[in-house]
Write a structure and sequence with these properties.
By secondary structure, this protein is an alpha/beta fold. The chain has a single domain, classed as Dihydrofolate Reductase, subunit A (3-Layer(aba) Sandwich). It is 22% helix and 36% strand. β4, α2 and β5 form a beta-alpha-beta unit. The relative contact order is 0.26.
């Protein structure tokens, strides 16, 4: 039996900044569309703070929220009390690929478990209080597409371990 692929998807700055005050550092419609296209139909695993920043479950995906708060509830979501349980739960829903979608603490825990990264790398260095973990182990470039909109230059990057 094939193991479920664990993928991480994130938008990061060149200095690996991802957020400040529980908010993303930018709003890039092309990135949101890219995120939706890649994750739709697959389970998504996120931390409680990420869920709260979204404010609702993401449509067309099994939403799994990781929290230590035993009283936390989120309508339309599966609640798990560890990343390990969340990954096993997600794998039972989709044996092909699951997505870790944030935030910072969940990324830190998941980076050593991940098979693939889908990164939107936004040009520039940003001030943040949350950063994406070191991903230098992911050296194999599967895909690279440079893009820009009226405000940002960015690259859609897919990386795997060699």
């Amino acid at each position: 039996m094939q193991r479920t692929k664990i993928s991480i998807i994130a938008a990061i700055a060149e200095n690996r900044a991802i957020g400040k005050n529980n908010k993303l550092l930018w709003h890039i419609p092309q990135d949101m569309k890219h995120f939706r296209k890649i994750t739709s139909g697959h389970p998504v695993v996120m931390g409680r703070k990420t869920y709260e920043s979204l404010g609702r479950p993401l449509p067309d995906r099994t939403n799994i929220v990781v929290t230590r708060d035993k009283l936390f509830r989120a309508k339309g979501c599966i609640i798990c009390y560890s990343l390990d349980i969340a990954i096993r739960t997600a794998g039972a829903k989709d044996s092909q690929e699951i997505f870790i979608i944030g935030g910072g603490k969940i990324y830190e825990q998941a980076i050593t478990l991940a098979d693939k990264l889908y990164l939107t790398v936004v040009k520039g260095n940003y001030e943040a209080d949350t950063y994406f973990p070191d991903y230098s182990d992911f050296k194999k470039v599967v895909s690279r597409k440079d893009r820009e909109d009226s405000k940002y230059k960015f690259t859609f990057l897919e990386l795997e371990r060699p």
